[in-house]
Request: fold
Amino acid sequence: MMKLTIALIFAFLSTTAVHAEIYNYSCNACLFPRIVTDDGYDGCDVVDGKTYPLRVDDNKNVLEWRGKKYSLIEQPNCAKYGWHAEGNGTSFDFCTATQGYGAIEDKDEVKVRCNLKR
Reply:
């Protein structure tokens, strides 16, 4: 009976492993962003094809973008999930959707388009 109890405890602990909620994205800046249209176009024409890393640490509530750190709070107005970032004299929303898509948005315009690194 004792062996069964110990086995159940180890089985439970292995299924409840803590995972770090750190998300790494590869992002492209947009050129002349426009308002999203009904045809699914997000209004982002990529500037030069260069990608930039973006990192969200949901445990520490920190977003890192282009060498700067921003404090995060949850943003309920995003379609799927997102954060409102503040710091360095500015603020913006980072919203995520399905299939690893994310975007930096400001005044309802997509400024930066991101894809989750897998």
Q: What stands out?
A: The CA atoms of residues 55 and 64 lie 5 Å apart. Confidence is low (pLDDT under 50) at residues 2-19. Strands lie at 22-31, 45-46, 52-57, 62-65, 68-74, 81-87, 90-96, 101-106, 109-116. Helices lie at 2-15.
